[in-house]
Model the fold of this input.
Amino acid sequence: MPAAVRATSEFFDQLTFDLLKLRVVAQQRFRPLSAEELNRRPGTGRWSTGQCLEHLNIVGGHYLPTIAARIKRAQARGSKPAAEAKHGFIGRKFIEAMRAPASEKPRTTPRRYAPTGTRLPRTVAEVFSRQIDELLRLVLLARQVNANAVRIPNPLFPLILLRLTDQLEFLVVHIQRHVAQAEAVLAGISARTAASAA
Done:
């Protein structure tokens, strides 16, 4: 979503569409995996599919309750949707940085968001699916308030307050990035398994 200003309905329609695609991947690709498949790592120091999902679950655990509380506060104030979804300068920079391919711009994950283990239970995929559903619910609620005026504090840097529009788009792009990473791990492992069996 490169435009700095978009019709609010168009902006939220795109987020919803992206999340519904992610929901299908979560349900059809990740939930059926065994614990062994989830925990298989492509190499030393690289994350397994389960670790990618756990990272997303940790990030969601920090942001989703705050977003829900801020939307609820806006509803209580009688906030109404704006005609256009606007983006802030800092939020746009965060989103653009997250959109850069991992191969071009690898990122270091802050310790508080890093996966906690290497032997994760299958429930990590179930939690991820539930968080996608919760984010879909929050996007639906965000349509009903002026998302430009709602500010979300950054857990690492509380003085940085992103517009709700920026925060929601950032989360979706962040999920897309790590879902692609998790799928690449599965594809690489499947290719190696097939090669060794040949």
User: Anything to note?
Assistant: The chain has a mean pLDDT of 90. The CA atoms of residues 95 and 168 lie 10 Å apart. Helices lie at 8-30, 35-39, 49-76, 89-99, 123-142, 164-197. Strands lie at 5-7, 84-86, 151-153, 161-163.
